[in-house]
Amino acid sequence: MTRTPSAEPKESNRSPTRTGMRLIVPLQGIVQGRGGLILGSLIPCTLFYFLQFYLKRHRSPPQNPPSRSTSAANLSELPRSSSRANLLSRGSTGRAHVSARASSIAKPNASPYYIGLDRVREDPYDEMSNPDGVIQLGLSENRLSLDLIEEWLSRNCTDSILGVGGDALGLNGIATYQPMDGLMEFKVAMADFMTEAMGKTVSFDPSRVVVTSGATPALEILSFCLADHGNAFLVPAPYYPGFDRDIRWRAGVELIPVHCRSCDNFTLSITALEQAFNQARKRGQKVRGILISNPANPVGNMLNKDMLYDLLDFARERNIHIISDEIFAGSTYGNEEFVSMAEIADSEDADKDRVHIIYGLSKDFSIPGFRVGVIYSFNESVLAASRKLTRFSSVSTATQKLLVSMLSDKRFIQEYLKTNKQRIRSMYDLFVAGLRELGVECTKSSGGLYCWVDLSRLISPYNEKGELDLWDKLLNRAKINVTPGSACHCIEPGWFRFCFTTLNEKEIPVVMERMCKVVESCKPSV
Amino acid sequence: MLSRKATCKSHGEDSSYFLGWQEYEKNPHDPVRNPSGIIQLGLAENQLSFDLLESWIAKNQEPIGFMKKGGSIFRELALFQDYRGLPAFKKELSEYMAAIRQDKVRFDPNNIVLTAGSTSANEALMFCLAEAGEAFLVPTPYYPGFDRDLKWRTGVEIVPIQSSSVNNFRIIPSALEEAYQHAQKLHLKVKGLFITNPSNPLGTTLSSHELDHLINFAIDKNIHIVSDEIYSGTVFDSPRFISIMEALKKKNLENTTIWSRVHIVSSLSKDFGLPGFRIGMIYSNSETLIAAATKMSSFGLVSSQSQFLLSRILGDKKFTRKYIMENRKRLKSRRKMLVSGLQKYGIRCLENNAGLFCWIDMRCLLSSYTFEAEMELWRRIIFKYGLNISPGSSFHCPEPGWFRICFSNMSEETLDLAVRRIKALVDSSAPNAC
Questions:
Q1: Which of A12, A287, A298, B317 could cross-link with A497 by S-S, CB 3.0 to 4.6 Å?
Q2: What is the pTM of this model?
Q3: Shortest CB distance from A105 goes to which of B64, B119, B292?
Q4: Coiled coil: which residue ranges (chain A) (predicted)?
Q5: Which residue of A has its CA nearest to B134?
Q6: Can you give the C-alpha Rg of chain A in angstroms?
């Protein structure tokens, strides 16, 4: 329908809905004379109502008023299908359906991070039995040094180490209440291991150690302690996709990405932090803390001492917390020394209360299956609350006892950490060299089990869709599972995380060969 | 500086239930080193059959050393973090669960979600079934830990279902309706019933009538039922245990909507006396719930080492059968020892056929029929007579004067000593009071 707004409005614009009139007025021009005003208002109103009707019919079915937890959960799923539709579970009626949170979580994972992991599970590469399977480069797992632990086990498989019968499994006839936050001897062993793994520059205190069943619950527990539902943490992006789940799902804390860029080598800048903080304040969002991962995941760079001091200053000025996820602290391969936030906290007595560290044995000690995580805090109240919360995420006594034996063998641990670092280093060198031969570069990194690869020249168009197209090609044509930057909330498209510690040396050429095919086919024609 | 959740008192640990433990920790009884210390009668743990487990372990060193036919599986276990759980373990667990229920119910391993202990399972279920501010109806008296586990982080409310000693605290339809109406008055949307069967602290199993009432109520109000069955392996006497799943089957409700609104929680902590392993589970016929709870279990996964070891123990069906039978025998005789001891001094115990404890009637010792008098009596029992028993008020018992005493977490000698101390307590009270 076309309109020719010719005549001046006959009536003055003094009807109740002034804004409405501004829209309607041009249309009044059609209908002159008597009834012009009425028709001039009626037609657009009618059109407006029909539009609403049309939209309503084509919108998703009505939902229960979405709670904050719903939107939080949805965000974590990076909805590619952008459907917030039908939060009611299938086949349920009325009030008996599961919670909105459960409905949302129950849906299949839409994020490429999880889709890729599922694909590997369905069709895993094996040199002998499944040479055409999908090679896993999307899980930051370290398989390089498990043999060292296996060797230790076989050497020490005597009663004295594994304990006589029941003691090994934590069975005893004494009616003592097993502390949910970890056996004292285990906390001592963990504190010592952390000290060793982080280069002995800090001495960790066992009384500040709270043990959890993995780093995942450690982060969730801290989120519950430090922020209320609807508050936010600032987190440098790109970041580990799991944070969306760990922090948003149940604790309901929002994550505000602080974007880092390739021109800065993806290093965090205080200016960017400040901007993000101020913008949050303008939006009315209460920031309760900064969540850093150091060494960073997925980029693999480390924060230096100056930056850590700056972060503490930043936190102090705004009265917020710092959570430092240092789970890769012992897996460094560069020339820089790792600096723990604990070292800064130790020297800045006044602000210790803001500093909380997350650690675990899944990466540095290669035993994710045993579920060992640590909350290390300088804040007594946080420790007290965390200890109570570990009952929801507690560690098996038998596992603790076994690990006490292992971790107390200081010589073994030192050897392990040293050898492990060397092996990560050589894999990194080989892997990066292999990529370079294909004309592919990575960010300079010094820690973690992965590298941050620049495939931006190979994507077309230069946006998230182009990146996901390439991811899809890599997964389904080259059959390698890597994590696209968008799953990590990277603001620049075309970056991918490749984990190389799930491979052995022989497999690197296989990976490169498969990559080559895709790289060649994607190279921009000059 | 901390969140509201961290600073509020919803952790429930100010309850007398937990305070009693704290007093015990300060002055624990030891037959040699501290004979006059406080005896722990407040910890519902099964320590009667460790010797059986220890001898199994001595004969089966392989799984301890991560060995099985074909070599070491350390590597596989070390890297195993699939939240769907070790298939071999879930299979054994499903068969064990069925065996405990006399095979009247079959369990599909795919409908099991593993969690780090039943504490984690209970909380996860709340997150999955209710929004913050919604409520579950819970029969009183109930385990004090629920105030923390079901409410703290989830924001879910508990509305108690009243009971009375007149009918041995059984669940009756009018009480269910009253609780529901009470919730309505408080503007709380009721999402379900949360029952513990066998009951803690009563130690009784629900009768088929009670189960019927509960099921009919849940159908009528269109709500869920969560059945915490962690004590199902401790049923040492008749009547036999009837699981909620069996009750549903008997009523032919298998393909109706209520079928996917009933969820079971269990663990190996009580049956097997293995709380340290942190092995809990959720069982449900609701696909959506299983999908959500499985992912949520990331916050409390069971160590692969525990899963492997337990798959071996449970896989040894002969041993498991023997263990269950022997364990029941020992529990029954322990209970008898406690009850007959108390009866001699005029203290009555509720008739119970399960659990690791007795629900005892100490009303005769109250200075007045009030909860203040109950607390007064409790303090006397702890500080003067050195016994940590748990007062009924901490279990939200509607009537004062009831206490829970555990009997399976100490030696016979210690239990005997405890009974003698109770005698001293009764003797010091008004003559012929009990």
A1: A298
A2: 0.87
A3: B292
A4: none
A5: A99
A6: 28
